[in-house]
Amino acid sequence: xxxxxxxxxxxxxxxxxxxxxxxxxxxxxxxxxxxxxxxxxxxxxxxxxxxxxxxxxxxxxxxxxxxxxxxxxxxxxxxxxxxxxxxxxxxxxxxxxxxxxxxxxxxxxxxxxxxxxxxxxxxxxxxxxxxxxxxxxxxxxxxxxxxxxxxxxxxxxxxxxxxxxxxxxxxxxxxxxxxxxxxxxxxxxxxxxxxxxxxxxxxxxxxxxxxxxxxxxxxxxxxxxxxxxxxxxxxxxxxxxxxxxxxxxxxxxxxxxxxxxxxxxxxxxxxxxxxxxxxxxxxxxxxxxxxxxxxxxxxxxxxxxxxxxxxxxxxxxxxxxxxxxxxxx
Length: 329
Hints:
By secondary structure, this protein is mainly β. It has one domain: Pectate Lyase C-like, CATH 2.160.20.10. The longest helix has 10 residues, at 2-11. The chain has a 34-stranded parallel beta sheet that branches. The protein has helices at residues 2-11, 22-25, and strands spanning 48-50, 55-57, 61-65, 69-70, 78-80, 85-88, 93-95, 104-105, 111-121, 128-130, 134-153, 158-160, 163-175, 178-180, 183-187, 192-196, 199-201, 204-208, 211-215, 221-223, 226-228, 232-236, 243-245, 248-250, 255-259, 267-269, 272-274, 278-282, 290-292, 295-297, 301-305, 310-311, 314-315, 326-328. The relative contact order is 0.06. It is built from two helices and 34 strands.
């Protein structure tokens, strides 16, 4: 205690004293000065440090990395076996090794996990595996060179400001999740997988060997995203009552936007699709979808739409008379 008091006294800033003439002294408010001890970094941090791998978290609380950490083979990096855990990567990197599992693994049915501010690279098992976790919040994490999925989280989760570079798969939100302002670049499989009632906004796909945005479930929304260089830009696959709106899809080897059977009652609106084999491809057995206000051009086939769907007139902007027209150029 004596040492802490001494440190606190030393940390009090120097106060300069000015002498005012009597003419001004009465007009200057008298502000009492009370010395406050200054917290010295590393002295009294209430969080728990993580300084080696593997590391298992068994109690709720706040944890932080102390420096870049390298995993050992045959194990995950950080294993979370508790609810209500926050991990601040603190600007550092979790680096995998041959045979290691996921960088951050959550094997139990946990909830309320937050991970932010750092990087995850080189783990053969993948990046952040929160398949069983509800209410996971992940922000500002760089995920790179991961053989498995970069990030997967459970119901009620939020992912923002993250990027996945050179990974097996990108981001997976299979149930009631939100992802925004995220980038997937050079992904071997699907860049984004979205499930029941999930939302993706302001995201970018720059090259994937699978699908740019794979919609698999009811009530999904993909809005204001940019996608290029995948076999299919946006795949609506066994998904109904979903919305694909205001997206840009460029240079897809099969289709910019594809709606497979039995997907039905989806809304495909105000997208810009170009330089693909097929611009907008709606399966013949896919019924009651609404396709309006899209701008499609420079594709092998601009529109391929089966019967039984509600399609705005297709033509040029100059000749269109309907407020719901799809533009072809």
